[in-house]
Specification:
Layout lengths: L3 H50 L3 E2 L15 E5 L10 H18 L4 E6 L1 H11 L3 E5 L8 H12 L7 E11 L2 E9 L20 H10 L1
Parallel strand pairs: 2-3, 2-5, 3-4
Antiparallel strand pairs: 1-6, 5-6
């Protein structure tokens, strides 16, 4: 049997731990609120971008995705984190990319992977290491334009001969639920089957200049 003094010390130690974890919870709640506010401000821009890039597709294997809309010789860019302890946020993305690569290989389509985040790099190195061509790690949060520009430079350094870029990421629903989706970014063309912004009217030769600026 523990003595009365030992029990009192254990109770005091437990109360101290409770104070620390309570403070950590408050800090995490404040960070989460800030991230949610930034997300709400960013969503209107993403809605506008759908007019150019098209909508996102769900990466849900229960629905039996065929990935028919992904062209041959695509560059897959999964977005993961540098740190863990975040549930299945990274593992779901890695498994989804593995399934995507397997399906594209079955359809005789080639692809490469440029992963963002150290956790994704280590997981995909084991799963689809032969497709991994580049990785961007030590990505600081929260994101801003400078970070997006730096990541874009890393992706474009993989080469310019890819037919499309496929961004695979988590879509926030609530703190406990994230949906995995992917968005296909194709070269912006003024004419043809993949004509960008067909709902807008432009003067002759102006559309090429506009699309060149938007691509940049």
């Amino acid at each position: 049997m523990a003595t009365e003094k030992q029990l009192a010390m254990q109770i005091t130690s437990t109360k101290n731990i409770m104070k620390i974890t309570s403070s950590m919870k408050m800090v995490s709640a404040a960070k989460l609120k800030g991230d949610e506010n930034r997300l709400l401000r960013a969503r209107p821009f993403n809605k506008w971008a759908e007019a150019i890039c098209g909508p996102s597709y769900p990466l849900d294997f229960d629905l039996g995705p065929t990935f028919e809309e992904i062209p041959d010789n695509a560059l897959i860019v999964p977005l993961t984190s540098d740190k863990g302890l975040c549930g299945g946020v990274n593992s779901f993305i890695s498994r989804g990319v593995r399934g995507m690569v397997q399906q594209l290989s079955a359809d005789k389509k080639d692809c490469s992977i440029c992963v963002v985040g150290d956790k994704g790099r280590s997981q995909m190195r084991r799963m689809v290491g032969d497709k991994l061509v580049a990785a961007a790690t030590e990505v600081e949060a929260p994101g801003n334009f400078d970070l997006a520009a730096a990541l874009t430079a890393e992706v474009l350094a993989c080469g310019s001969d890819y037919s499309a870029i496929v961004i695979v990421h988590n879509e926030f629903v609530n703190p406990a639920v994230y949906n995995q989706v992917y968005k296909i970014l194709r070269p912006l063309e003024a004419t043809g089957d993949n004509e960008a912004m067909p709902q807008y009217e432009f003067e002759p030769d102006i559309k090429n200049e506009v699309l060149e600026d938007l691509t940049e």
